[in-house]
Amino acid sequence: MSLRLLTKSFVSQRISPSLFSRFYATKKYTASHEWISVEDGVGTVGITEYAQNALGDVVYVEVPEVDTEVELDEVVGVVESVKSTSDIYSPLSGKIVEANEKVVESSKLINASPEKDGWLFKVKFSSQDEVDKLLDEAAYTKLIEESDH
Question: C or N terminus of the chain, fewer CB within 10 Å?
């Protein structure tokens, strides 16, 4: 038996999925086109590539202040483009622990890298249940495909 099979068997028998996910970032999505990468009780939030493409050239970004307590689906920021203005919603309840000032100074970061360098804020979340209710990549892709028709 290969080491890979032994390791997989050992991991699946010894480590629960919830414990395993604590050590690796998990990426989730919202129906309002925010993404969130969850790692060690903190979620990094931004807008999806799909949302960025729909907005076009971003010209202004407003992010929440650090230490602000936020609720699920609360408006916490704004992204303005040459086409429209969109509210940013918090995908989780918790406390803002970091805001990406680089996107405030250079909103073009969102156009260049919406799901990496163009992240907006980090939230220390208070409910794993809220994380579990977010969309996975397959569900988000399906949502986009249905909305495009």
Answer: C
